[in-house]
Amino acid sequence: MFDVVLLAENSLFSCSTCDLKLSDEDSLQQHFLRVHSDDKPYKCDMCQAAFRYKGNLASHRTVHTGEKPYRCTVCGAQFNRPANLKTHTRIHSGEKPYKCETCGARFVQVAHLRAHVLIHTGEKPYPCETCGTRFRHLQTLKSHIRIHTGEKPYHCEKCDLHFRHKSQLRLHLRQKHGAITNTKIRYKIVPELYGTGHQSC
């Protein structure tokens, strides 16, 4: 499966594949499965996505169905997963439970803390298998890989153009369709231009 390298001088566990150092063996195993393992038996029947866990596949399906059953009682924002709603509510409460031990910065999500910590270490644990470029964040690697695969998963429902990145779709919607876009409202078509109400991609 994976090799554990214990660095006794500061009790860190090192990944033998990418040299990422973690404080405990469980975290190392999770890292290995998440980043280096190809074992993803649960396949989406609507796209090419595959998952290690059945629950992750079930959550992913809402991407295709558009179902968002979890609603924020403060602002009405809707989410496809209860965990996403819980994280969102911290925006309203101001809670930032995850603290960087190096600089004291605080974060709403543990994933944001993990990404932040890499700034201090300088590590880039996510290598592109095609060209060797390394990335600090897994999402940046996934986005980069589309350069090699040619995949363009974001499409405009108005003119059926496809885009490699969500930001490219947002720019297109603003420039070509007069949409108002931001991170909270995916886009809003101006009714007098198209005779439609709110829509989302």
TrEMBL record:
Residues of the C2H2-type domain: 13-41, 42-69, 70-97, 98-125, 126-153, 154-177
Keyword match Magnesium: no
MF-aspect GO terms: chromatin binding; DNA-binding transcription repressor activity, RNA polymerase II-specific; RNA polymerase II cis-regulatory region sequence-specific DNA binding; zinc ion binding
Source organism per UniProt: Chiloscyllium punctatum (Brownbanded bambooshark)
Residues annotated as transmembrane: none
SUPFAM superfamilies according to UniProt: beta-beta-alpha zinc fingers
The keyword rRNA-binding appears for this protein: no
Localization, UniProt: Nucleus
A GO cellular component annotation in the UniProt record: nucleus
Key words, A-Z: DNA-binding, Immunity, Inflammatory response, Metal-binding, Nucleus, Repeat, Zinc, Zinc-finger
GO biological process terms on file: immune system process; inflammatory response; positive regulation of cell differentiation; positive regulation of lymphocyte activation; regulation of apoptotic process; regulation of leukocyte cell-cell adhesion; regulation of T cell differentiation
The protein's name in its UniProt record: C2H2-type domain-containing protein
Pfam families with a match to the protein in the record: zf-C2H2, zf-met
